[in-house]
Amino acid sequence: MILRSGRLFKRFNMDIFYKSERIGRNGKPFFMWKFRTLKAGSDSKMFAENYTRFGRLLRKVKLDELPQLVNVLRGEMSIFGYRPEEKRTWDILPDSIKEILIKQKPGIIDLSSIYFIDEERLINLSKDPQEVYWQKIKPIKFILQAFYIENKSLLFNLAILWMFFKKLLKL
Q: Core-most of 6, 47, 88, 93, by most CB within 10 Å?
């Protein structure tokens, strides 16, 4: 119901939700929801100037992820798990990584979301954001995702939640 109310927001020129096609468990595509944080016409989150002032705040405290609870309720995602990949990224992943991820349900919080909680800052400090993301950040994210998948448990999830809030409060 809440997501269908997008018509109401469009009527008042308030496009507050963003949906992105992602790949979930068993390779099944789904739309992941977020609060919109980019300025109209921006196609890349790689640069700080593309964010609205309110969007920057939402991203800093990770509240832009809140609508993903709808994905959790629909069974497409869980609270804990690897971040789901966009289809264009999924298509270029090595098969060895796909084989690990495809068996799991993606999630909202994982180790990489803690380790790279300030990812935008790291990217924006670089002369070549794409290179930093694909050559330095993404490989570490895959290692952290595989580690989580191999070691997931209730206790590990509680530890991740504790680390996430602890790191978030330091921002």
A: 93
